[in-house]
Amino acid sequence: MMKDFKQSILVSIWFVFLTFPLMAVRVNTTEQVVEWRWMSMVWVAIATFSLSYAWRYLLARKQAKKNEEDISHGKLQLLMEDMGFRYKAMGLLLLLALIFPLVFDTYQNTIMISALIYVVLGLGLNISVGLAGLLDLGYVAFFAVGAYSYALLNHHFGIGFWSILPVGGIFGCLFGVILGFPILRLRGDYLAIVTLGFGMIIKVVLENWSDFTFGPSGIANIDKPGLFGMDMNIDSSTTYIYYIMIALVVFTILITNRLKNSRIGRAWIALREDEIACVAMGIDMARTKLSAYALGAFWAGMVGVLFAAKTTFINPASFTFMESAIILSIVVLGGMGSILGVILGAFILILLPEYLRAFSEYRMLAFGAAMVLMMIFRPQGIISNIRTKYEYKKLTEETEHG
Amino acid sequence: MAEKHKLLEVKGLTMDFGGLRAVDSVSLEVHEGEIAALIGPNGAGKTTFFNCVTGIYNPTKGDILLHPKGLPTRRLNGLKPNKVTEMGLARTFQNIRLFSDMTVLENVMIGRHCRTSAGIFRSIIRDKGVRKEEQEIVETSYQLLKKVGLAESANEFAKNLPYGAQRRLEIARAMATEPFLLLLDEPAAGMNPQETGDLDQLICKISEEEQIAILLIEHDMKLVMNISNPIYVMEYGKKIAEGSPQQIKDHPKVIEAYLGEETDA
Ligand SMILES: Nc1ncnc2c1ncn2[C@@H]1O[C@H](COP(=O)(O)OP(=O)(O)OP(=O)(O)O)[C@@H](O)[C@H]1O
Ligand SMILES: [Mg+2]
Q1: Rounded mean pLDDT of A293-322?
Q2: Helices A106-125 and A83-103: angle between axes, nearest 10 degrees
Q3: Whether the Cβ atoms of residue A327 and residue A135 lie closer than 8 Å to each other
Q4: How far, in Å, is the centroid of ligand 2 from the Cα of B95?
Q5: B93 inside domain
Q6: B203 and B161 belong to one structural domain
Q7: Looking at the partner chain, which of B80, B110, B134 has a beta carbon nearest the beta carbon of A281?
Q8: Atom of ligand 1 nearest to the CA of B46
Q9: Residue A75's pLDDT is what?
Q10: In chain A, helix, strand, coil percent, each to 5?
Q11: Are residues B84 and B197 in the same domain?
């Protein structure tokens, strides 16, 4: 403790020294005098001291915690393993989600819709990255496939939203398999580079294949989702999309949760944990990888359709690497493989910047800092690896003893 | 010996890594009911031999033939590891390869993968058959954990188990694939004498009660001499001797290559 204190004092003195010319000395050019701002020096000293001290304290605490018990047994973690609590919490959240548009205005609804879109994207990517451990830096490509399949089919043939919604998902799937095949044997850095390339290729194609995709100018006047041919104004159609989105999120959660706790899901996790042991235990690697890519891409394709319907205009600028990076950050921040974690991650990463518009200039800075801190203090994400407990009969055990 | 059914037959197996011949025309047989051992100094090529047999490497030369009882003979060369496992040949690893962020029970459940069938759609719908299959997976896995003495830790994360328990978990996981031949790569490595003794019993139990033949790599001579027969000895990729524990103990080449220090002491 004393050592940390001394270290922190040294750090603050060093910072005072470093920032002295910038913070303390100011030449007032109108009056030709030098102003000495001693107060700001004091502030610098206090700020750096407390930051440095807090930093050291947290690191020490993390170390201590690691030594005494496994980090994954935190309080939040145990709470999440309690099924009763989980169901109650989910019911409450769903209720809140359902009354949200009645309480808030269209602006809030729109923000919420985009957050929900990222929830679905996060959950989809969570299948390939979080569960199966297959890094994908080009995930936005599948999102683009979904969005463009709706935009084009709607533009050329006037097909409606509801018929394309599953088609978008299936196109996403197909592209997932197409991407999956060449990268079956790749791992780590190579996988990252190839998937990154795939994301880039899609964007370049969208921008340059003007006859088919209308190039950088994009496609406008895409139909909004219809409800029995009713005419809707902007407010009610936003509310409508909001509810569709809620339904889609619930659907995604249900399906991914079932998959995660199934024979297939366990195979994905095993593949993430140890590829060689996984195949040696009789799991077909190619099949498992392809299914993870395809099912991950399915959700992106589907929500892409909704995205196109919501904005009524799409162009390649919506599908940049930045989007892939954000979706990946959602998964990493939330906790690889954890459905609840990914939902939390999406809300934090999408809503916070929206509501903190005042600080929008520092957005990327804060984003980076948050990620770095996260990697140091909680590399497993907000919520990590909730244990599934299985029911098994202990009958035979008892009869043996009795 | 002659009347016993031959399960695994390896003929002239050779494995090259670039210029290095890690395994040099090694032949070996494992019969029904046997606990065979493969021993040899560090770097002799034992693990490489296992990797070839289980499909992790594709051998340069030689034949690996599997004769399952009541089924036609299969040549294993070039098959994917999961196919080999499906055929009834399971293994453990020298440097433990558990799924560390899965629970102990889930680790064993993975072993059931190739004996169960629920696909993506059925897993989503989760019909009655799938629910029954899931329950079957859980029960069988739990029973296996009991057999290796890990039932108490079923819900622990595998990474939190002590070393000896992790080795036993690997055995349980391999057994979950319903093998008729089990390959164990240094199952006693890093265990204390007490744990080694327990393992000794466990291996015998598996061999007798489950009718699983065993081929094991081991450095612990006491364990090998106690339970296994026949023993195959490798050095620098070549098989230098084979026979009963007594024959191996007295074999001049073996004494020179491997047991030399021990017999001196
Ligand atoms: N993938 C590989 N690529 C190149 N060389 C390899 C590879 N695997 C093993 N070798 C080499 O083959 C030789 C035999 O290794 P192997 O691991 O089979 O020995 P081992 O008998 O299992 O030894 P130990 O008792 O230490 O486990 C060694 O010289 C090793 O360096
Ligand atoms: Mg070895």
Answers
A1: 94
A2: 150
A3: no
A4: 8
A5: no
A6: no
A7: B110
A8: 21
A9: 65
A10: 75, 0, 20
A11: yes
Alpha carbon distance A257, A264 (integer Å): 11
| Range A192-214 average pLDDT | 90
Q: Are residues B1 and B84 in the same domain?
A: yes
- Per CB distance under 8 Å, which residues of A are interface residues toward B? 70, 72, 255, 258-259, 262-267, 269-270, 273-274, 276-285, 291, 295, 385, 387-393, 396-397
pTM, whole model, 2 decimals?
A: 0.87
- Residue ranges per structural domain of chain A: 2-64, 89-377
Chain A residues close to B162, C-beta within 8 Å: none
HSE-CB for A155 with a 13 A CA cutoff: 18
- Report the topology of domain A89-377: ABC transporter involved in vitamin B12 uptake, BtuC (1.10.3470)
For chain A, the farthest-separated pair of C-alpha atoms sits apart, in whole angstroms, at: 98
Range of the domain at B169: 99-178
Top residue of A185, A392, A398 to mutate, by most chain B CBs within 10 Å, is: A392
Neighbours of ion ligand 2 (CB under 5 A): B 47, 94
Q: Which residues line ligand 1 (CB under 6 A)?
A: B 17, 20, 22, 40, 42-48, 94
Angle (CA) A344-B121-A264 rounded to 5° is 65
| Closest CA of chain B from A278, distance in Å | 8
User: d(Cα A163, Cα A143) in Å, to the nearest integer?
Assistant: 17
- Domain for residue B209, yes or no? yes
Q: Tell me the ligand closest to B22's alpha carbon.
A: 1
Which residues on A lie below 8 Å from B93 (Cβ)?
Answer: 276-277, 280
Interval A279-286 mean pLDDT: 94
Express each pLDDT in A75-87 by its tens digit. Answer: 666 676 677 787 8
Query: Which chain A residues contact residue B88 at CB under 8 A?
Result: none
| Ligand sitting nearest the alpha carbon of B45 | 1
- CATH number for B59: 3.40.50.300
Q: Which 8-state DSSP code applies to residue A129?
A: I
Top residue of A170, A298, A299, A390 to mutate, by most chain B CBs within 10 Å, is A390
Looking at residue A388, the DSSP 8-state letter turns out to be: P
Cα end-to-end span (Å), chain A? 56
Domain count, chain B: 2
- Kindly list the distances between the CA atom of residue B212 and the CA atoms of A232, B175, B176, in Å, as whole numbers in the listed order: 70, 9, 12
Closest CA to A118 of A364, A356, A379, A354: A354
Tokens (6 digits) for A348:
């934090």
